[in-house]
Automatic annotation (TrEMBL), chain A:
Organism this protein belongs to: Aquiflexum gelatinilyticum
Protein name from the UniProt record: Fe-S cluster assembly ATPase SufC
InterPro entries documented for this protein: AAA+_ATPase (IPR003593), ABC_transporter-like_ATP-bd (IPR003439), FeS-cluster_ATPase_SufC (IPR010230), P-loop_NTPase (IPR027417)
Gene3D superfamilies: P-loop containing nucleotide triphosphate hydrolases (3.40.50.300)
Keywords: ATP-binding, Nucleotide-binding
PANTHER family: ABC TRANSPORTER I FAMILY MEMBER 6, CHLOROPLASTIC
The gene coding this protein: sufC
Pfam family, one: ABC_tran
GO cellular component: cytoplasm
Automatic annotation (TrEMBL), chain B:
Family matches, as Pfam families: SUFBD_core, SufBD_N
Species whose genome carries this gene: Aquiflexum gelatinilyticum
Protein name in the entry: Fe-S cluster assembly protein SufB
Gene Ontology BP term (one): iron-sulfur cluster assembly
Gene name in the database record: sufB
Residue ranges of every copy of the SUF system FeS cluster assembly SufBD core domain listed in the record: 210-451
Family: Belongs to the iron-sulfur cluster assembly SufBD family.
């Protein structure tokens, strides 16, 4: 579904991603871990098409299409979803109104008729259950004054509404208490199918108890320096990242 | 070119939708301005002697006045002698009923989405349509007159209700008030008049739709609204003009009088031609709007959505004379390309326990300049006066400007005046977030701007609010990336 080949990206001339290779197949869950500042959010942003980042080398193929050629909104319409590490506030625009615009633009792109207000509300009701989100929250201004947990839950709710093929969750676990973590993870798990894939960015093993990854990758200094299965996440939890840094640094000398 | 600028360039391409004009045979005054022209206009309208006197007095006052220069707007000097002060489509010759209005005139309004045919009109809105210098028709007159409501063109009011016109004309905006108001008083051609008798709640929205069609003609209309004791009316004003390379002058006066317990809501969606992308052409909109809450417990509320005009100079104001009276001003002013707007309000607290509320939302894009200018004045005897002002500015791109000029003058120590101001930019973050959900940049801008202006848009009557939302999006189409 997704093939990343030798991806290099920089911001304002500073290289951040320095040769990422990754293959994600339908039905898989990949976890990307790594110390702060290693480039995890950058990778997520580059995949979603944030323009501040300049791709200097490499390619990304998503379902046979050159992802890097597409405008950010078209990537979303093709089925790429990013749950933001820091969701943005939009004053005066309710989540409901926001999502109605989004869902209908995505539907239009996919050649589906727009959902009228009644239909839309019934779909919304159904998806609300998935992440146990309150209707009241959805009629408030998007993310404005939301708690950290509410913002994250709202991201997953949006994911449910947009039915993406590839979901990238950037530190969705941060700011969630243990109950919310369980609810949000359950939501993500219910949305999984053999036609969709998930990339989970986190630096805690805890989330991976709920969303069980097929593969775990360690990102360090803009490169994937180690890949493994969920046991790797356990090992990282136990030993931290220092041993990986040492390994990498030793190899580069 | 930076990315921002590139997108700005790409997107500032939307054309003004109402930029067409129609060749109508017109009854015109000769070009120029002098006493003879004023006599000509007055004679054309078969006005009583007192009104001609009033005009001439205004004209002589105007001759002694100079154009105000304090506003934060810049434009070449207007050649007031090069303008025509009266132009009426020949066909409008006093239709007795709507059926007699020339179809060609009706068509002009239909093209603008205004249907003067009562059967086809949405229930709930009565319209007075003003083309160039004259009113071409007023709908639902009979329905309204059953309630004692007078809603007609200004000229008609002069003939049919001279006592009312004489009593209130110039009572809120004196003819000597300012340069443009004096000019208007001398040469005004038509406009709307509205009287709501005591205790009557006007059952429908009243609206005036102004359209400039003729070239090289100034439009000087006057609106006078009188709400007698305990009455209520909601009034709407809309305006458009053809695209022309030269600038055109629009200098209107609106007066509102609210007696004891009366309430008037006045909403404007101003969409005069703003000029082209390079700043050529467009309307100079120099308007004096003022209401007086004359009686206790009266209320006047101004709501404006200002999207058009090359230069806007406009400060709808409230004189809070009655005790416990309330003044409100809700404004969204959008400027794009080379537009300049200097707009705001004055709240003058005279009565005790008076309250005012100002919510101003400026949006600047392109190379435009957008200024809020507001005055809150609390007089000596206005004990317990309250004012709350919220002035927000939203910038798109880095070539436009937003300015706020609040003036506060308090002469009573019990007054409470609060002023809040914010300036923000449509963030890359917000746009990217919307894009990531599949929303195009254009629609994202519309969404964000409408969210920003929501508190003001919510004040508009439903049908108007939808129009205003579309207009905001249209005005800003292509202003950010
Ligand atoms: N907008 C930016 N400007 C400059 N440096 C940035 C910007 N965004 C990220 N970086 C830098 O890129 C590196 C990777 O950041 P990020 O991808 O957010 O890391 P992670 O998500 O793994 O914590 C960090 O060193 C960070 O400081
Ligand atoms: Mg991060």
């Amino acid at each position: 579904m997704l093939t990343i080949k030798n991806l290099h990206a920089s911001i304002e001339g500073t290289p951040i991603l320095r040769g990422i290779n990754l293959e994600v197949k339908a039905g898989e869950v990949h976890a990307i871990m790594g110390p702060n500042g290693s480039g995890k959010s950058t990778l997520a942003s580059v995949l979603a098409g944030r323009e501040e980042y300049e791709v200097t080398e490499g390619e990304v193929i998503f379902q046979g299409k050159d992802l890097l050629e597409l405008a950010p909104e078209d990537r979303a319409r093709e089925g790429v979803f990013l749950a933001f590490q820091y969701p943005v506030e939009i004053p005066g625009v309710s989540t409901t109104n926001f999502l109605r615009t989004a869902v209908n633009q995505v539907r239009e792109y996919r050649g589906l008729p727009a959902l009228d207000a009644v239909k839309f509300l019934s779909v919304m009701k159904e998806k609300m259950k998935l992440v146990e989100i309150d209707q009241k929250l959805l009629s408030r201004s998007l993310n404005e004054g939301f708690s950290g947990g509410e913002k994250k839950r709202n991201e997953i709710f949006q994911m449910a509404m947009l039915e993406p093929t590839l979901s990238i969750l950037d530190e969705t676990d941060s700011g969630l208490d243990i109950d919310a973590l369980r609810i949000v993870s359950n939501g993500v798990n219910k949305l999984k199918s053999d036609k969709t894939a998930t990339i989970v960015v986190t630096h805690y093993q805890r989330l991976l108890d709920y969303i069980v990854p097929d593969f775990v990758h360690v990102l360090y200094n803009g490169r994937i320096v180690k890949s493994g299965t969920k046991e790797l996440a356990m090992e990282l939890e136990e030993k931290g990242y220092d041993w990986i840094k040492e390994e990498v640094n030793a190899a580069s000398v | 070119m930076s990315k921002d600028n590139k997108i700005l360039e790409e997107l500032t391409s939307k054309d003004y939708e109402h930029g067409w004009s129609v060749n109508l045979e017109a009854d015109e005054a000769p070009i120029g301005l002098n006493e003879d022209i004023i006599r000509w206009i007055s004679a054309k309208k078969e006005e009583p002697e007192w009104l001609l006197e009033w005009r001439l007095k205004a004209f002589n006052n105007w001759l002694t006045m100079t154009e105000p220069v304090w506003a934060n707007v810049h434009y070449p000097k207007i050649d007031l002698q090069g303008l025509r002060y009266y132009s009426a489509p020949k066909k409008s010759n006093k239709p007795k009923s709507l059926d007699e209005i020339d179809p060609e005139l009706l068509q002009i309004y239909e093209r603008l989405g205004i249907n003067l045919n009562e059967q086809k009109r949405l229930q709930g809105i009565a319209v007075d349509a003003v083309l160039d210098s004259v009113s071409v028709g007023t709908t639902f007159k009979e329905t309204l007159s059953k309630l004692g409501i007078i809603f007609c063109s200004f000229s008609e009011a002069v003939h049919e209700h001279p006592e009312l016109v004489k009593k209130y004309l110039g009572s809120v905006v004196p003819m000597t008030d300012n340069y443009y108001a004096a000019l208007n008083s001398a040469v005004f051609s038509d406009g709307s008049f509205c009287y709501i008798p005591s205790g009557v709640r006007c059952p429908m929205e009243l609206s005036t739709y102004f359209r400039i069609n003729a070239a090289n003609t100034g439009q000087f209309e006057r609106t006078l609204i009188v709400a007698d004791e305990g009455s209520y009316v909601s009034y709407l004003e809309g305006c458009t003009a053809p695209k022309r390379d030269e600038n055109q002058l629009h200098a209107a006066v609106v007066e509102i009088y609210a007696a004891k317990n009366a309430e008037v809501k006045y909403s404007t969606v101003q969409n005069w031609y703003p000029g082209d992308k390079s700043g050529k052409g467009g309307i100079y909109n120099f308007v004096t709007k003022r209401g007086i809450c004359a009686g206790d417990h009266s209320k006047i509320s101004w709501t404006q959505v200002e999207t058009g005009s090359a230069v806007t100079w406009k400060y709808p104001s409230c004189i809070l004379k009655g005790d416990y009276s309330i003044g409100e001003f809700y404004s969204v002013a959008v400027t794009n390309n080379y537009q300049q707007a200097d707009t705001g309000t004055k709240m003058i607290h005279i009565g005790k326990n008076t309250r005012s509320r100002i919510v101003s939302k400026g949006i600047s894009a392109g190379k435009s300049q957008n200024s809020y200018r507001g005055q809150v004045q609390v007089m000596k005897r206005a004990s317990n006066a309250r004012n709350f002002s919220q002035c927000d500015s939203l910038l798109m791109g880095d070539r436009c400007g937003a300015h706020t000029f609040p003036y506060i003058d308090i002469q009573n120590p019990t007054a409470k005046v609060e002023h809040e101001a914010t300036t923000s930019k449509i963030g890359e973050d917000q746009l990217f977030y919307c894009n990531q959900r599949g929303i195009s940049t254009e629609d994202a801008v519309a969404l964000i701007v409408n969210g920003y202006a929501k508190e003001v848009l919510n004040q508009l009557p439903m049908e108007f609010a939808v129009e205003a939302q579309k207009l905001l999006a249209l005005t800003l189409e292509g202003s950010v990336g």
